[in-house]
Design brief:
Helix content of chain A: over 70%
CATH topology of one domain in chain A: Cytochrome C Oxidase, Chain A
CATH class of the largest domain in chain B: Mainly Alpha
Oligomer: heterodimer
Strand content of chain B: under 5%
CATH topology of the largest domain in chain B: Cytochrome Bc1 Complex, Chain D, domain 2
Order of helices and strands of chain A: HHHHHEHEHHHHHHHHHHHHH
CATH class of one domain in chain A: Mainly Alpha
Structural class of chain B: mainly alpha
Shape of chain A: globular
Strand content of chain A: under 5%
Strand order of the largest sheet of chain A: 1-2
CATH superfamily of one domain in chain A: Cytochrome c oxidase-like, subunit I domain
CATH architecture of the largest domain in chain B: Orthogonal Bundle
Amino acid sequence: MGTRALEYDYTVSKWFLITTIILGIVGLLIGVIIALEMAYPELNNLFGEYGTFGRLKVLHTNTIIYGFVLSGVFSSWYYIAQHVLKVSLHESPFLQIMAKVHYFTYLLVIVLALISLLLGISTSKEYSEFEWPIDIFVVIFWLSWGIGISGLIGIRREKSLYISIWYFMATFLVVTALYLFNNMSIPTYFITGTGAWYHSVSVYAGSNDAMIQWWFGNNMVEFILTIPIIAMIYYFLPKEAGQAVYSYKLSLLSFWTLIFVYFLAGGHNLIYSTVPDWVQTVGSLFSIVLILPSWGNAINMLLTMKGEWQQLQTNQLIKFMVMASTFYMFSTLEGSIQAIKSVNALAHFTDWIPGHVHNGALGWDGFMIIAAAFHMAPRIFKREIYSKKLMNIQFWTQTVGIVLYFSSMWIAGITQGMMWRATDQYGNLAHSFIDTVIMIHPYFVIRSIGGVLYLVGFLFFTYNFYKTITLGRRLEYYELKNTSPMATI
Amino acid sequence: MFNWLEKHPLFLGIVIFLFVSFAWIVTILPNFAEMARPTVGTKPYTVLELAGRGVYIKDSCNACHSQMIRPFKSETDRYGIYSLSGEYAYDRPSLWGSKRTGPDLLRVGNYRTTDWHENHMLNPTSVVTGSIMPKYPHMFKNLADIDTAWAEAETVRKVFSVPYNEPLIQKDGTYQSVKLASTIEEAKADALAEAKLVASDMKTKSVIDAIERGEIPEIVALIAYMNSLK
C-alpha cells in the first residue's frame, strides 16, 4: 500500500483549465476590440451603449484578471497541491465537494460579473468594480478555496511545505483581507428603501478612498498576478527541466522580502496626488527596494536552468517559462523606474502605464499560464501534446505581439508626457490636449497589431490544446512517471 | 525559524499576515481622520448631480478621464489650481482615475458650458477635431436614476453625517446649504426643477420634451454634475 503511487483527482483542475482558455479568448478579444476603438473611435458605437470603450474596458480587465489568470491559478493549485503535499482529493470526499462548490460559485461570479458590468452596474473602484451582491458570491468561492487549502494541508503526507504552497497560502490570506476592506460599502436600499437594490456607497471618502483603492489595486496585482504565478513557476519549471530549484535560501529571502515590501510600495500609485507626502515617498522608496525580491525570484528561476540551457532548443515549454521569467524581470524593473518621483511625474496618466501592465500580464502571467496548461494537459488527459511545431509558432507570434505592445506604448506614453509639459519660449503651454492625442495615433495602431498577434497566438494554443485532448497520442503510465512528455521533439 | 514555519502551516499563515498588516497599518491609519476633512467651500452633491455622477460611473468615464490635478505648472496652467485633499471629502468613491486618454475633469465646470457638453456628448469631433472619444447618444434617451441618487444622498447623510440642509461656510465668508428633501417625491420635484435650469441652455428637442413631461434624461444629470466640478 505504502509504495503504490497516488491516484490524483484532476476533475476540478481540468474544469478550471478549460475555463482559463475560454475566458482567455474572451478577455483578449475584448482587449483587441478596445485597442482598435482607441485607434478607430467610430468602432465605439457599433453595439449602442454596450460597445463603448468605458463599458468594455472594465469587462476586459475583469475577464483577464479574475477570469483568465485566476482560473489558471486555481487549476494549477488543484494540480500542484496534490503533488507536493502527496495527497489526493480522492482521500477526502468533503474536500472534493468543496472543490466543486468552489468551481461553480466561481463560475456564477464570472457570469454575473460579465452581465452586470456590461449593463454598467459598477462601483467604479478600479479592479474591484463588482457591486455588493456579487461580492458576496466572491467571498463564498474564495472561502471555499481557503477551506480546500487548509483541508489539503491538514491531511498532507509531506510534512514540509514546498515553496509553492507558501505562495498559495499568502495569496489566499492576503487577498481575503484586501478584498473585504476595499469593498466595505453600505447598500443604499437597506437604509432608505428606495432606488436600485444592488447599489451601494463606499464607506471611505475622497483621499482615503483613493488610498484604500490603490492599497487594494497595488497589492491585488501582487497577490493575484504575481505571487500565485511564482508559486506555479517554482513547481512547473523545476519539474519540466528535471532540475532542482537553484537556491533555497534565495527563495526564502525573496518570499519574505516580497510580501513585506510590496505593501509599503503601494503609495507609488498616488505620487503627486493629495495623499500625504511621506506616504508617497515611502511608496517610491520601497518600490526601488522591490527590485531585490523580484529579481531574486526571477534569477532563482533562470539559474535553475544552469547547465541545462540546451533544453531551450528541445523543449518548447521551457522556452515559455524562461521568457515568462524574463518578462517578469523586465516589468519589475520598469515598475521600479516608474515609481521614481521624477519619472512618475512624466509617466503617470500616460500610456506607458498600461504598457507596463501588459508587459507583466501578457509576458509573465499569460506565458506562465500557457506553460502550466501545456505541462498539465498531458498528465491530466494522458495524451501527448498534439503539435510542438505549433507551440513554437505560437511562442514567436505572441512574443512579437508583446514586443510591439510595450514598445509602442512606451513611445506613446513618453511622447504624450513630454508634450503635456512642453512650453514655448514665453512659458505658455505649447500643445493643446488634442494635439497630444493625434500625435500618438500611430502607436495606438501598432498596439492593436500587437494585441491581434497575441490573440492569434492564443488561438493557436487553443487549437493545439483541443487537438491534444481529443487526438493526441495516448500516453503510457511510465511515460508520465519521470521525464516530461515534452522532451522528445 | 523558517524551517520550523514550513512544517507548521498555521503559524506560517499568522507570520505572513503580520508581515503584510504592518505595512498597511503604518501607511493608511496615521492621516486617516485628517484626510477626510472637507476644505472650506466644498459642498455635498445635490441629488441631480449625484445622479449624473452615477452616469459617469455607469459609463466608466473615469477609465479615460482623471480628476486629479498634480502640483506642476504645466497642469495648473491647463486645468486650474492643483487638487486639495479636502475637496474630495464628499466623493464616495473617489474618481481620481489613473489614465488620461482624455483631459482631466476636476475643474471642467470652470471652462466648459452646458451647450458645449451637449454638442460634445452627441458628437465629440464636432467641437474637438480629432477627438477619439465615443459618441454617447444613449445618454439622451436613457433616464437618470433619481431614486438611487436620492437613496445614496440620504444614506450618506444618515450614516456618515454628510452635512445636507446645514449652513456651510463658503470662501467669501457667506453661508450656503445644500438641500436634501426628506421624501423621494419631494426630492424628485427638486431634481426636476434643477434639471429645468440645465435644460434651458440645451437645444436637443427630445431632451426638452422629456423635461416637459417631467422626465430627466441621463445627459441632463451628467451635465449638472460636470458643471458642479469646479
